[in-house]
Amino acid sequence: MNNKELKQSVITGFLSQTKDRFHIYNEEKTIEEKLQMVSEIRGMNGVEMVFPYEVNDPEKLKNMLAKYQLHLSAINVNVKAEPEFKNGGLTSRDKAIRDKAVRFIKEAKDFALKVGADKVTCCPLGDGYEFNFNCDYAQSWKYLIETFSEAANYLPEIPLFIEYKPAETRGRCFLDTASKTLCLLNDIKNKKLGVTLDFGHSVMFGNENPAEAVTLIAESPFPLYIHVNDNDGRWDWDLWTGSKHFLDYVEFLYYLQKYQYTDYLTSDTSPTRWDIKGTFEANTRITTKIWNLLNHLNKKEFEQLISGSDFLKTWHFVEQNIFSLKD
After folding, report:
1. Mode of pairing for the β-strands spanning 172-173 and 128-129
2. Least confident of 14-23, 153-162, 170-179
3. Which letter does DSSP use for residue 240 in this model?
4. What percentage of the chain reaches a pLDDT higher than 90?
5. Any idea of the CA torsion for 261, 262, 267, 268, to the nearest 10 degrees?
6. Residue 3, pLDDT above cutoff 50
7. Contact 273, 25 (CB under 8 A)
8. β-pair partners for 266
9. What tens digit of pLDDT does each residue of 25-83 get?
């Protein structure tokens, strides 16, 4: 895979007003204003959009995407915002609530098919727990198998990607690691399921090594989709790429190249106090620089060093070849 094939996109919800527990950031923008902004960001030609809260009119969306020459990297379905989902949607003890969560995913697949998206991604953040003896772990796992199986079997031509996260909105999410998400997919046994790997979720709480997570998923039967951002390891701050875990991000991209990843790298990054367009330009700029650098590495030599036993030699290669990042 070479740089000409590097595809970058953005979750459009971050291009408008966002808020945390204490503050509201930036001004509200229309869908068209968001898409126009994306079209002006160098190196970015894709968007991931949230259904049903952000988009729900397929013809209107298709016309705007064509106008700004943008592609859909994914449709993101939200199964946490409804009041019924606050204690978990896909793992609720109430079958009617589980059915509603599955219906949201099915409707997102219907929408994806109408607008030409090739996947739906879902992060089940409301499904988890806080305390010891807070839930029946085995039953909750069975509910995940049941609900995601039903959702995956519906419109199989639109694969469903599951995004994991250690915590938020729950104190601990049931799907908190790449390995546990792969366990779920192995239990379901449907190859129309995939994993959305969010770089920040992977490093959050020292949870994982993102490059190792790429390897685990890439070596599995299931496809991979990527969200990019960064944080300090203590919380999911959604900072721009490389700002806190630069070398981790380099290794992450290295393994994406190694496994010939050809899908979008989608910015799941929150501008808050910084200029919106400038924040996403930082993402595309640093990602493109690293991608270019990795394309020109002597991969054969590097692989031999990685497979060897003398890490000082590997580190010397890193010093000479990776810390020389240029435009």
Report:
1. antiparallel
2. 14-23
3. P
4. 96
5. -60
6. no
7. yes
8. 9, 227
9. 999 999 999 999 999 999 999 999 999 999 999 999 999 999 999 999 999 999 999 99
- Dist. CA 226–CA 243, nearest whole Å: 18
Cα 238 from Cα 300, distance rounded (Å)? 34
Q: Which helix (H) or strand (E) holds 267?
A: strand 264-267
Tell me the pLDDT tens digit for each residue of 82-115: 999 999 999 999 999 999 999 999 999 999 999 9
Q: Is 63 exposed, middle or buried (0-12, 13-18, 19+ CB in 10 A)?
A: exposed
Pull the structure tokens for residue 69.
């020459």
**Distance separating alpha carbons of residues 303 and 158, to the nearest angstrom:** 36
Total length of the chain: 327
Residue type, 244: K
Helices (DSSP H) in 190-267: which residue ranges? 199-203, 210-218, 246-258
- Rounded to whole angstroms, the Cα distance separating 264 from 320 reads 29
Q: Cα–Cα distances in Å, from 133 out to 129, 130, 136, 138?
A: 9, 9, 8, 12
- Which residue matches tokens 């923008």? 29
Residue 178: both structure tokens together? 């790449």
Give me the helix-helix angle, 178-188 and 137-153, nearest 10°: 60
Token look-up 């229309």 returns: 30
DSSP-assigned letter for residue 164: P
- 252 within 8 A of 210, measured Cβ to Cβ: yes
| Max intra-chain CA distance, the chain | 59
Q: CA of 304: how far to CAs of 26, 212, 214, in Å?
A: 48, 18, 20
* Token pair listed for 152: 């995956």
Lookup: tokens for 262: 């050809």
Tell me the pairing of strands 24-25 and 160-163.
unpaired
How far is 219 from 217, CA to CA, in rounded Å? 5
Q: Is the Cβ–Cβ distance between 88 and 132 less than 8 Å?
A: no
pTM above 0.70, yes or no: yes
